[in-house]
Structure formats: structure tokens, C-alpha cells
TrEMBL record:
Protein's organism: Oxylabes madagascariensis (white-throated Oxylabes)
Protein name from the UniProt record: MYO5B protein
Keyword line: Coiled coil
Record's keyword annotation contains Coiled coil: yes
Coiled-coil region: 3-103
């Protein structure tokens, strides 16, 4: 039984190896054919006048840049779509934070002893302010809550 199992495994490996070799041969044949086509196109290009060679080179470069531009536009669209999704998620989370903060203000102060212990000393830079307040948009609910209390 063990010998048959080993023979079956060996045959499976041989079959996989032969399939892989066939796939590699096909890939090599395709690459060889592509190389021959490129060589023939190159030889034909060498027989053309310098002006026509330059024009063909420019056309190829324009084609390459156009394809690259299309790829970049596709990437930009994907990134914009992702940005919209993330902004939507941010709005949802901001709403949840505001709801949470609103629920926290309704709880009496005596029930929140752990918040008093969590206060942190903040070092501030001394500046001359003239009635303007600078803050980050995400800090707005906290700022409003602190102004009210």
C-alpha cells in the first residue's frame, strides 16, 4: 500500500512538472514570436528616412503616454471613490462621538469620578491673541463642551 501511494505521488508530481514545462514552453514560444516581430519592425524602421523614424518614435511615445495617462486617471478615480467612502465613515464616526458626548453631559458629575482623575496638565505657549481662536475641526465638539462648562 505504501509503495502504491508513493508511486501515485510520483506520478502526480511528474504530471504537474510536465504541465508546468508545457506552459513554460508555450510562454517561451510567444516571447520568441514577439521578439521576432519587434526585430522585424526595428529593421523596417531602420530602412525609413530619419524624419519618418522620428515621427514613428513620437507616435509610439504619444501612445505610451496616453496609456499611462489613462492608467493614472483610473487610479485617481479609485482614490477619489475611496476618499468619498472615508469621508462618509468620518461623518458617521463624528456623529457617534457627538451623540456619546451629549449622553455624557446628561450623566451627573458625581457619577463620573474617573473623568476627574483623567485630567491632564497641558503646557501652553504664551502668545498674544486678539480675539481669534485657532482649532482643528475635529476638536470642535470638545471645545464647545469646554466653553459651556
Amino acid at each position: 500500500p505504501i509503495l502504491r501511494l508513493l508511486e501515485a505521488q510520483l506520478q502526480d508530481q511528474r504530471r504537474e512538472h510536465e504541465e508546468e514545462m508545457e506552459a513554460l514552453r508555450n510562454q517561451m514560444d510567444l516571447m520568441q514570436e514577439e521578439l521576432e516581430n519587434q526585430q522585424q519592425a526595428f529593421l523596417q524602421t531602420l530602412q525609413l528616412s530619419p524624419e519618418v523614424q522620428v515621427e514613428l518614435g513620437l507616435q509610439q511615445e504619444i501612445t505610451r503616454l496616453t496609456n499611462e495617462n489613462l492608467d493614472l486617471k483610473e487610479l485617481l478615480e479609485k482614490l477619489e471613490k475611496n476618499e468619498k467612502k472615508l469621508k462618509k465613515q468620518l461623518k458617521i464616526y463624528m456623529k457617534k462621538v457627538q451623540d456619546f458626548e451629549a449622553s455624557q453631559t446628561m450623566v451627573p458629575v458625581e457619577r463620573r469620578p474617573h473623568e476627574r482623575n483623567m485630567q491632564v496638565a497641558v503646557q501652553r505657549k504664551e502668545k498674544d491673541f486678539q480675539g481669534m481662536l485657532e482649532y482643528y475641526k475635529e476638536d470642535e465638539p470638545l471645545l464647545i463642551r469646554n466653553l459651556i462648562t
